[in-house]
TrEMBL record:
<dbReference type="InterPro" id="IPR020624">
    <property type="entry name" value="Schiff_base-form_aldolases_CS"/>
</dbReference>
<dbReference type="GO" id="GO:0005829">
    <property type="term" value="C:cytosol"/>
</dbReference>
<dbReference type="InterPro" id="IPR005263">
    <property type="entry name" value="DapA"/>
</dbReference>
<comment type="pathway">
    <text>Amino-acid biosynthesis; L-lysine biosynthesis via DAP pathway; (S)-tetrahydrodipicolinate from L-aspartate: step 3/4.</text>
</comment>
<keyword id="KW-0220">Diaminopimelate biosynthesis</keyword>
<dbReference type="InterPro" id="IPR013785">
    <property type="entry name" value="Aldolase_TIM"/>
</dbReference>
<dbReference type="GO" id="GO:0009089">
    <property type="term" value="P:lysine biosynthetic process via diaminopimelate"/>
</dbReference>
<keyword id="KW-0963">Cytoplasm</keyword>
<keyword id="KW-0457">Lysine biosynthesis</keyword>
<dbReference type="GO" id="GO:0008840">
    <property type="term" value="F:4-hydroxy-tetrahydrodipicolinate synthase activity"/>
</dbReference>
<feature type="binding site">
    <location>
        <position position="215"/>
    </location>
    <ligand>
        <name>pyruvate</name>
    </ligand>
</feature>
<keyword id="KW-0028">Amino-acid biosynthesis</keyword>
<dbReference type="InterPro" id="IPR020625">
    <property type="entry name" value="Schiff_base-form_aldolases_AS"/>
</dbReference>
<dbReference type="Pfam" id="PF00701">
    <property type="entry name" value="DHDPS"/>
</dbReference>
<dbReference type="InterPro" id="IPR002220">
    <property type="entry name" value="DapA-like"/>
</dbReference>
<feature type="binding site">
    <location>
        <position position="59"/>
    </location>
    <ligand>
        <name>pyruvate</name>
    </ligand>
</feature>
<feature type="active site" description="Schiff-base intermediate with substrate">
    <location>
        <position position="174"/>
    </location>
</feature>
Length: 312
C-alpha cells in the first residue's frame, strides 16, 4: 500500500481493518427517487454498530444510478462525517468512465475503493491485469479487488491477482465465488492481501481459512447482530452459530439481491419503501413470511447474547 494512501488513512483516524463492511442498500421512494432521509438513517445505524460502509455496490444498485446520482449519494454520506470508514464501489464495463469516477471520488473524504471485474466481457488474465492496473493507478485510496463470478461471468485469475498484490494501492480482496477452494488458492498465492468473505453464510468457514472479515448484505437488516456473528466467527466461537445464521441468511437470497433485504428492511420500518430500480422489483418476492420469521429469531439471539453479557 502506498505511503500516500496510508498517510491519508492515518490523518482520517479511521482504520480499514474493521471486521465487517456493510454493502449498503440505496433506499428509494415509491416513485423511484433516492430517499436521502432513509439513507442517512441506515448509514447512522451502521456507524453506531461500528461497521464500515460500502456505497454503490451491487447491493446498492449502483449500476442502476446515473453518475450524478452516484455522486450525490457519496457526497451526502461524506457530509455526515461518520466515525467509520467509507468505501466506494467502482464497477461497470467502460474503463474511461470508471477512471473518471475514480478521479471524481479522489477529491472526496472516503477511505477506500471496491474494484469490480468488468461486466459481461469475461477478459482473460492479461485483460484483467490491464483493467485492474489502470484502476489501481488512478486510485488515490487503498483498493479492495472483487471476485464475483456470478455477476462478472469469470473468476479473477489467481496469478493475475498475485501480480497485482504488489501494487501500492492493492489492499484487499473480497472473495464471493462461494467456493472454499478458490478462497484457499487466493490465500496461498496472495499472502500480502487482506481477504474478506463476500458470502455471508460462509463467514465461519472462511474465518478458519484466514478471512479477515466480511463484506455483508445481511448487516443492512441486522447491523449489531451481524457484527457479533462475524466477531464470533473470527474467534472460532462457533457453537450453535452455523445453523442459526445459515437459516437466517438463506431467505435474504431467495431471489436476486438486494430484493429480499430491502423488503425485510421495509417490514422493519427502516425503509419507507421496498422499491428497487428496474430491472429489479420487490414484486419478485411473493411472500415475506420467511424473512420476518428469521428476523425474529435473530432478534431473540441478539437479546439473549446481550442478557448474558449483562449477567457476566
Amino acid at each position: 500500500m502506498s505511503s500516500r494512501a496510508m498517510n491519508q488513512i492515518q490523518e482520517s483516524n479511521l482504520s480499514l481493518n474493521c471486521p465487517l463492511w456493510t454493502a449498503l442498500v440505496t433506499p428509494f421512494h415509491a416513485n423511484g427517487e433516492i430517499d436521502f432521509t432513509s439513507l442517512e438513517a441506515i448509514a447512522r445505524d451502521q456507524a453506531d454498530a461500528g461497521n464500515g460502509i460500502l456505497l454503490l455496490g451491487s447491493t446498492g444498485e449502483g449500476l442502476a444510478l446515473s453518475f450524478e446520482e452516484q455522486l450525490s449519494i457519496v457526497e451526502y454520506i461524506c457530509r455526515l462525517s461518520l466515525a467509520v470508514p467509507l468505501m466506494v464501489a467502482v464497477g461497470g464495463h467502460d474503463l474511461p468512465s470508471q477512471l473518471k469516477w475514480l478521479q471524481t471520488c479522489n477529491r472526496l473524504p472516503v477511505q477506500a475503493y471496491l474494484l469490480g471485474s468488468p461486466l459481461y466481457a469475461k477478459p482473460g488474465p492479461q485483460g484483467q491485469y490491464l483493467w485492474f492496473r489502470a484502476l489501481l493507478d488512478q486510485a488515490k485510496y487503498p483498493c479492495m479487488l472483487y471476485n464475483v463470478p456470478s455477476r462478472s461471468g469469470i473468476d479473477l485469475d489467481v496469478e493475475t491477482l498475485a501480480k497485482l498484490q504488489h501494487h501500492d494501492n492493492c489492499w484487499a480482496l473480497k472473495e464471493a465465488s462461494g467456493e472454499l477452494e478458490q478462497f484457499l488458492r487466493y490465500r496461498q498465492a496472495c499472502p500480502e492481501l487482506a481477504l474478506y468473505s463476500g458470502e455471508d453464510a460462509m463467514m465461519p468457514y472462511l474465518a478458519s481459512a484466514g478471512a479477515q472479515g466480511l463484506v455483508s448484505v445481511c448487516a443492512n437488516a441486522w447491523p449489531e447482530a451481524t457484527r457479533a456473528y462475524v466477531e464470533l466467527s473470527l474467534t472460532a466461537q462457533n457453537q450453535g452459530l452455523f445453523p442459526l445464521w445459515q437459516n437466517a441468511i438463506a431467505p435474504l437470497f431467495a431471489v436476486a439481491n438486494p430484493i429480499p433485504v430491502k423488503q425485510l428492511m421495509f417490514e422493519q420500518q427502516v425503509l419507507s419503501s421496498p422499491t428497487l430500480r428496474p430491472p429489479l422489483t420487490h414484486t419478485e418476492l411473493s411472500d415475506s413470511q420467511a424473512l420476518v420469521h428469521q428476523d425474529q429469531l435473530i432478534s431473540q439471539w441478539q437479546a439473549q447474547r446481550q442478557g448474558q453479557a449483562c449477567l457476566n
